[in-house]
Amino acid sequence: MAERKVQVFFYGSFMNLKVLEEAGLKKRPFAPACIHGYELTVQPHANITESGDGVVYGILANMTHSELEVLYGGHLASITDAPYHPEAMLVFTRGGKIAPAMVYIATDMKPGIAEGAYIDRLIKAASDYGFPAWYRERIASFKAPD
Predict the structure, then answer these.
(1) Cβ neighbours of residue 89 under 8 Å, at least 6 residues apart?
(2) pLDDT tens digits along 119-141
(3) Residue 131 neighbours by CB distance under 10 Å
(4) Beta-carbon neighbour count of residue 60 at 10 Å?
(5) Which of 39, 36, 33 is nearest to 15 (CA)?
(6) pLDDT class for 60, splitting at 50, 70, 90?
(7) Spatial distance between the Cα atoms of 134 and 76, rounded to a whole number of angstroms
(8) CB-based burial, 65-91: b 16+ in 10 Å, e otherwise
(9) At 38, is the secondary structure helix, strand, or coil?
(10) Which of 39, 57, 90, 146 is the most buried (most CB within 10 A)?
């Protein structure tokens, strides 16, 4: 029997297909989506915080629990000391559907400066998925000044 898949909302570097491939995950279709009531922060990795009028763009994906363990327990744990924990949220797809999904949030991230290459990967993914210009500018605002 195939392992069951669950819906997950990616808003950070896992939106970038190259990053998923580097973690050993196969390509699959993703749906651009957003969540309301949060805003994106990058310090030094993408995270979200509650914000009444905020919106965070990302992608909705179907993943197995094993794949999520590879991403959050292995790949991400190797680059950050802040563990990400899943929370259930409602995600709004570009097509107007509302779907429940797991969203991973780090509650104990120590502030830091994001690497330029990391921000570039986020901006590339945001551009590829057609996120609004103001959102891409927000991502770019986390880049350290030259």
Answers:
(1) 9, 35, 100, 101, 102, 103
(2) 999 999 999 999 999 999 999 99
(3) 22
(4) 22
(5) 33
(6) very high
(7) 27
(8) eebbebbbeebbeeeeebebeeeebeb
(9) strand
(10) 57
Looking at residue 144, its pLDDT comes to 82
Q: How is residue 6 written in tokens?
A: 């669950």
- Whether the predicted pLDDT of 107 surpasses 70: yes
From the centroid of its chain, how far is CA 49? 13
How many Å apart are CA 81 and CA 58, to the nearest integer? 23
SS3 45: coil
Given a cut of 70, is residue 79 above it in pLDDT?
A: no
Distance of CA 74 to the CA centre of its chain: 16
